[in-house]
Amino acid sequence: MNSRRKFLTEATVLSSLLLNPVKIFSNEIGNNERENKELIKPKALKKGDKVALIAPASNIEQAEDLNIACDVIKWLGFDPVVGKNIMNQYGYLAGQDKERAEDLNDMFARKDVAGIICYRGGYGAMRILPYIDYDLIKKNPKVFMGFSDITALLQAIYKMTGLVTFHGPVVISSFNDYTMEYLNRAIFSNKVIGEIKNPIPQTNRVDTEHRLIKINKGKTTGNLVGGNLTLIVSLLGTPYDVDYKNKILFIEEIDEEPYKADRMFTQLWLSGKLQELNGIIIGKMTNVKPYEYKPGYTSTLYIEEILRTRLEPLKIPVVYGYAFGHIRDKITLPVGVKATLDVDNGLFSIDENAVI
């Protein structure tokens, strides 16, 4: 009787696990599904700090590209430290998954490294999520920055540790004056970041490049989460997807057909995630247009229709057109900090410091 009871108990547990494969996966990789309530802010970077350069997604194509990347780190005022696996290549990736994760873990572990900037996005960051040592990161908080495919790392690190991460330039980005202004506010200064404004158009010109389109009016506050639309959707249903409740979601995308962007927004809507938000800020949707030219339709018109169809019914503040994403002029947005969105008055502000 005891052995039969034991068998039935084990069978019941096994059945439960088989019906919940995500739980099996998360247990195997040593993660948990907690949403960290305590926000951890890294130390501000300063000139002369050692800053690590890693490639957690796509590979670096030529040796000279690495030399240029190190020169960019130096131009920013830092002493570059290069991940040991950075020049590895595995197909379209910068080495095997565990090699790319090893570089990330090593740089968080090193006491002499003050921050980490990714070389590029591309593809592959999601593949290393199971191999990241989140407990190590939580014990050694530091600035971690990138965008595009790096969204997966920004969101996962924030979710699993509570560390503020930075949706900002990668090393191959253009560090012009506008980009540097918001980079300085985000990672060099422990003051409140304050109001975020799009680039000012040239004298005597009507702004056509950085116009703000009001999808839904209203005013709200909430902590920032977000990044690249494809990656945000790809994290749905995984242990690394963040809690959207009462957050302000920021989104950008590049090189997708409008119907694909529509499908991703629809998936977020069907998942119930959009309905939990306080507000949404859409950045640049670069080249989100049909591959074949269709007279009378611009890229902006396509995406505006999609946004209005999907987001207007939410009845929360939504604005489209802020300067972040795959563009030259780039705002650095800290994931996890409190922000205000006032669509009626064209105001977007980050209401606290992101570093200490």
What does this structure look like?
The protein is of the alpha/beta class. It folds into two domains: 50-173, Rossmann fold; 194-350, Glucose Oxidase, domain 1, CATH 3.50.30.60. Helices cover 31% and strands 19% of the residues. It has helices at residues 2-18, 21-28, 63-75, 97-109, 134-139, 151-161, 177-188, 229-234, 258-270, 299-311; strands spanning 50-54, 79-82, 113-118, 143-146, 165-167, 194-195, 213-216, 219-228, 247-254, 279-286, 318-320, 333-335, 338-342, 347-350. Strand 10, helix 10 (299-311) and strand 11 form a beta-alpha-beta unit. Helix 9 packs parallel to helix 10 (299-311).
Percent helix range: 25-40%
Low-confidence stretches: 1-34
- The CATH architecture classification of the largest domain is 3-Layer(bba) Sandwich
Secondary-structure class: alpha/beta
Assign the CATH superfamily of the largest domain: LD-carboxypeptidase A C-terminal domain-like
Rg result: 21 Å
Number of spatially distinct domains: 2
Would you tell me the overall average pLDDT? 89
Share of β-strand residues: 15-25%
